[in-house]
Specification:
CATH architecture of the domain at 10-130 and 192-226: 3-Layer(aba) Sandwich
Low-confidence stretches: none
Structural class: alpha/beta
Radius of gyration: 17 Å
Largest sheet: 5 strands, parallel
CATH topology of the domain at 10-130 and 192-226: Rossmann fold
Number of helices: 8
Number of strands: 8
CATH class of the domain at 10-130 and 192-226: Alpha Beta
Helix content: 40-55%
Distance between the termini: 26 Å
Order of helices and strands: EHEHHHEHEHEEEHEH
CATH superfamily of the domain at 10-130 and 192-226: P-loop containing nucleotide triphosphate hydrolases
Shape: globular
Strand order of the largest sheet: 2-3-1-4-8
Length: 227
């Protein structure tokens, strides 16, 4: 009897800013032994790299990023594609947090994922939250300066000054102000939402998920859908 080949999955968690994409991606990565791929963190790592500070292209992307605008799609697609190939070569599956963000990126990234992993192994979960909740969550969340963990504002976390995971200092992100978040929500409606129509045209199923409850409840719903 031949040994059944291991299936490597690709999960894509979509939703507006503050819907809990990163939190759910982390939970899914741990649950299913996947590589968590947060495009925003990948971009931040590149544009805030001191060794690349004088690169004109990086400076341009950093300026757009700091204004709450999406970075140049061709540049993002190139970086993401390179990372996907590295992860696949290691024999790992992936869980994406809000990527691809534009039609341009989707038309380059999705075919690559289909080629490497197979369309039958790609699953999309759409976290749905009202805009007012998205704004509140973003203006109140904090990020660990060491491990990058994101803390959602609630009664248990609002008084914490240190990360409960590693003890690192908790800080507010520069981007987490009301003006910038409204700009990001506008960009989400105009540039990211159309990606969902493209995915449907590729016959990739999109599963809607209520993103309003506590993270544990949301993850339970997602896992139930997977099973």
């Amino acid at each position: 009897m031949t040994k059944e080949k291991k299936r490597n999955f690709v999960f894509i968690v979509f939703g507006p800013p503050g819907s809990g994409k990163s939190t759910q991606a982390k939970i899914l990565a741990n649950k299913f032994s996947l590589v968590e791929f947060d495009t925003g963190q990948v971009i931040e790592k590149v544009i805030f790299d001191p060794q690349k500070a004088r690169d004109p292209l990086i400076k341009k992307q950093k300026e757009r990023f700091s204004q709450g605008k999406l970075c140049q799609p061709s540049w993002v697609a190139k970086i993401v594609s390179q990372e996907i190939k590295k992860i696949h070569q290691k024999g790992k599956g992936i869980v994406f947090s809000g990527s691809p963000r534009t039609i341009y990126e989707a038309k380059r990234i999705i075919p690559l994922l289909e080629k490497l992993y197979g369309q039958e192994n790609i699953f999309v979960f759409l976290l749905k939250v009202p805009e007012k909740i998205s704004i509140f969550r973003n203006t109140h969340r904090r990020v660990c300066s060491l491990c990058g963990a994101t803390l959602i504002y609630n009664q248990e976390t609002k008084k914490l000054t240190r990360c409960p995971c590693c003890g690192g200092e908790l800080k507010e992100r520069i981007l987490d102000n009301k003006k910038t978040i409204k700009e990001r929500l506008k960009k989400y409606r105009e540039e990211t939402k159309p990606v969902l129509k493209y995915l449907l045209s590729k016959k990739i199923k999109i599963v809607p998920i209520n993103g309003e409850p506590m993270p544990e409840e949301v993850s339970q719903e997602i896992i139930a859908k997977i099973k």
